[in-house]
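The protein record filed here:
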Amino acid sequence: MFESKFNTTQKIKLSGFNNLTKILSFNLYDFCIALSPEEKIQYVNYINTKYSAPRIAEIARNICAIIEANILAESMQDYDPVGASTMTLMSDIKGGGEPLPAPTVKMHLDKSHITSHTYPDASDPDGICTFRVDIDIATCGEIIPLNAINYLFEAFECDIVYIDYVVRGYTRLENGKKIYNDHHFNSIRDFIKPDTLAQFSHASDINMPQDNIWQTKLMIKEQGPDNYILNPEDKNHPLINEKMELLRKEMIEVYHMIH
């Protein structure tokens, strides 16, 4: 039976708490060419090592440091044969409320959390392997998860990226006025470094600020086989040009969600 580590009987007094819910979803795809069944196994082993559950949990900790969130608890799980999941519970101590005594500082103020799931796929008969990561950062309070975007680009190799951001709920100012968003911007791209954006050939936005909904998707510029092969000598393989065409086609399909 699960035993909660949190005090569920003692209520904690809050005043002026910002309860806007902000959710950032960062969905990325990384591609690779495997020219033999052995290379498919090599690719899966590489992904399972580089992006194991402990490694993803470390990335979540770094996100918490960037957005100034307090970690409450975390869990992680690797899967057989592929994939990993993690969950990090966090709170926004800055988000309002009266000063708390030391023993109750690590409390769960809200539904703030980071979840991640990885999906390596080496089953394509043409050897076009993909690695997908879904990271969701859900916060409540003054935390702005968009501030972690540039770190996510640094933490992963991103060929295609879907970024969704929504703000829900409302909070009240001291004068009683309701507000539905406490930060205003035009596009998610406003938060991404220019040199990062310059790496992508395709970019599109769906911006509905009146509904507090934004989406940006990006696709990397065309690159040579050195960026997609496991073994350097494979760049001279007789099938490499054909495989590169298949890889680019796969990327375009994923970017446009072509069925």
